Structures are given as structure tokens and as C-alpha cells.
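In response to reviewer comment 3 from the previous cycle, which asked for concrete evidence that the modeling workflow produces usable outputs, we include below a single protein chain processed end to end. The sequence was submitted unchanged, and the resulting C-alpha cells are shown without manual editing.
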Amino acid sequence: MKERLTIAMDGPAGSGKSTIAQRLAETLDYLYLNSGSMYRAMTLLALREGGDPANVSALIQLAKNCRIDFSNNGKTTLLNGEDVSDALRTPEIDRAIADIAKIPDIRREMVRQQRRIGENGGIIVEGRDVTTVVFPEADLKFYISASVEERAKRRFTEQQAKDIETTLERVEQEIRERDQMDESREHSPLQTAEDAIVVDTTSMTINQAVEFVLNRVEES
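The workflow returned the following C-alpha cells.
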């Protein structure tokens, strides 16, 4: 394995890509960049500022003027220097993020920030368009998937642990809607890169998935 790889990892919500990417970064001592957290931070900023999804120009200005960074091996998301990690995974963010993330100029601003953070390699980037748009020349690409039912169970369990009131049926419906929006988005839709290694985690434990991906990295 050569040094300082750029590893890109895409996949739908709840597929396990965030956990896999984070564990991989810890093992390899790489920087972990969660592009989904960037869009969540941007959505949080828009909600705080009373951003109207219909007022695209105002949202674009927010994106251009903000700075998003990561610390603590990617576990901490910083929005203009503020730790907003605990505020990013709420039903309000889940419902609003697609309207923010589908705006082309906002995606361009987030891509610019992702490339700034990852310009020196030694990084694992995960999201929904990092293998196809953000880092198309990445040394290694993975597409992490799982069934809708399994992904809903995972997200429901995560929200229960945070005392968020919801139902499994509602979470599954939200995931299906998010998938549809991500895959049909005109700008940078979620898709599998031709040279990506596909990993279906439906029947895998997280340790099995991490081991599978790590073995592919070490073989490179």
C-alpha cells in the first residue's frame, strides 16, 4: 500500500459508510471527512438564519461565507469555529437537508471546501458524490450499500438512543424519500462510480465491513 492515499466512499443514508470510514481513518491514522456533515452543518446554518429554500441566492451567500472544518479525527464538525456535532442529526435537519443539498451552487461551495480539506491526501472522504464529483481521481473508491429495511432499522435505533420520538415506519419512509431525491438530483446525483468497489453491508457486522474494506486498502 502506498502512502497518503485519497480514499473516497459513497453510499445512501444508513448504509454504514460513516462508521466504516471513521474506523478506517482511525486504523490508518488518516483524516476523516464526512461530506454529509458538511451539508448538515450548512442546513443547520440555514435553519438558524431562517433560510427559505425558495430564496436560493440568500442560501448561496450563506454557503460562500461559512467555513466548515473537522477535528478529533472527523468526530467533531466545526461551523465557523463552533462545535455543532450534536446538533446535526435531528429530524428537522433530516427533513430540510435535501432541499439545501440539491442547490447546485451550494454543492459547488461544499465541493470547494472538501477539496481544500483533502488537498494533501492521507484522507478518507465519505458522502454521496465524492467518488464521482469531488475526488474522481481518488486512489480507491468504495460504494457502501444496504437494503432500505436494514438502513431504516439502523437509523431508528440511532434516533431512539437520542430519545428522538419517531417510528420505524416513518424513518423508513424518510429514507426512501431521501434516496429518491439523492438519486434523481440533477446536479451530482448519488450513483456508483464505474471503478468503485461495491460493499453490501446488509448482512455484515460493522467489524466485518471494516475488515473487508481495510483488506482492499492494504492490497492496493
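The radius of gyration is 16 Å. We consider this sufficient to address the reviewer's concern, and the full set will be provided in the supplementary archive.
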